[in-house]
Amino acid sequence: MSIHNSLINSIFEINSDKDFNEVALKVYHYQYKHVSIYRNFCDALGRKTPTHFKEIPFLPISFFKTHKILSDEIDSASLQVFKSSGTTQSIRSQHYLADPKIYVDSFLNTFTKQIVNPKDAIIMALLPNYVEQGESSLVYMVDYLVKESNHYLSGFYLNDLDLLINAIENARKEDKKIILFGVSYALLDLAEKKIDLSGVIILETGGMKGRRKEMIKEELHEILCEGLKVQHIYSEYGMTELLSQAYTNGTEYFTAPKWMKVLIRDVDDPLNIRNEGKTGGVNVIDLANYYSCSFIGTDDLGIQEGNRFKILGRFDQSDIRGCNLLVN
Length: 328
Hints:
- The protein is 32% helix and 21% strand.
- It is of the alpha/beta class.
- The protein has two domains: 138 residues, Luciferase, Domain 3 (Luciferase, domain 3), CATH 2.30.38; 136 residues, Rossmann fold, CATH 3.40.50.
- The longest helix has 18 residues.
């Protein structure tokens, strides 16, 4: 894989739309050549030679449930496989991790820039369903951040809310930021205890996982703010099929790293990219997905403005899956 290092390095050195376009086209040509399912998809659309990243075809995310989306240069036999959380009835998407360093470079860079350097934080996780199901990219990421924090209070607290509350009280005595990753239903369980977590950065990762009724993000965050005595709830936008994340900082809009872009497609004409400020289906370009597919048409609905975007919900026919903001 050393012959690809130069291009992979350039992904994380993007500083302009011109850089992004140049790198995106190079990544597209690599994936068209080496990811057979993606090549067949592009051929079927008759779109083989894009000249701009907005012309690149977006593979429907459902393909990750039915096909191995991986470069033919990579032997999948010994690779770690991430699987979506889903529900007990759903087919779980699979994403083969060809190069863990790319994933670490992606999430560590973004988390440090948008949230905090993990070395300066105490990082706690309330992600019981992800840990129970296993093979989670989110758990992989949070576990790495926990180890980077190198603090005895950092870690996964599963369903032990009392232990978590006690750990947060002890963490308040330290001169560090406190970060709490939490799946929506577990955070609601915590909020029902009516405790004061003011000053704690709460990162909601989305989803009720069949444990509670789904609700819109605004309603969820209002309940959490009231129950946990915080002014804002942060959110993460990421998924099994991607190797990059975007975060909110208490607003409704996610900010993407420079190697990730969201485009909005017309719901009635998926090949048509809509102008900024228009509602439609969310297409994601994640250049860190180098050995898989960087151009994915998700099942989310949203609005894009510059490098920021807002998630409005999901298409009705979509499965309830992990790492997304969901509505009925």
